[in-house]
Input
Amino acid sequence: MTTNELNLKDANPLLQFLALLRDHELEISGMVAASYESVVRRWDRTVARFALDQMLEDASARIPKGGRVLDAGCGTGLRIPEIRSVFQPQSITGIDTSIAMLDRARENISNAFFTDGDILCLPFESETFDAVVATWVMETLADPRRAVEECLRVLKSGGILAYSFVNLPGHFKPGDHFHPSALHVVDEATREQELLGANRIDFGDSEFALIKRHQKGLITTVILGKCCNVEPYMLPLTKL
Ligand SMILES: C[S@@+](CC[C@H](N)C(=O)[O-])C[C@H]1O[C@@H](n2cnc3c(N)ncnc32)[C@H](O)[C@@H]1O
Output
């Protein structure tokens, strides 16, 4: 068994949760919100830590400290301590559609402002934030492009949007064994990476964009400047 296979086995509960969020109008209960934290910590430890650390560092290098940061789809607020330590923001706001997740976020985190709202229609003026972060949210949405565009709208000129997603197979259902269905998507993502030529892509015609693929394309991290066009390869493959 390879290291990657082991990682994927460990990752299964989070992938199932992401599939539930995407395929159903799921009202997240307090119990689910509480158990989410242990699942996501395991996911971080086994699969995602390196990708998340790199994404936050790459993003923080491009914005001044002391700005306003939005965690879009903040869940239980688990990202906020690391966002704080890397960005050293003046203020941090978390937004999520789930009241249960937000309740936990308020318990977990002090000195942050939490509000319920939809990433597809953010209740903020344009050009409000210096940085927007969205981890494991885009792949749960039927229209991730709209979410990315909405995050760019609330970004100040010169600001940075940083997001991570899993290329969740379109036909993946909770209870499925992840491995067989994932492999196809990983293959697709790897081919795409070859097409783009490198792990790192700087776009000459836009302000700034950086896309990195990790774990053979299972995880993608994207950093966009405000003026970027949203291209298909910046979005999760939700359908095969
Ligand atoms: C897998 S969790 C990720 C939570 C957190 N970002 C993290 O890294 O642990 C996905 C979160 O996105 C939220 N979410 C789903 N659809 C959303 C939407 N349309 N607008 C805002 N949040 C949404 C869910 O309620 C859930 O808390």
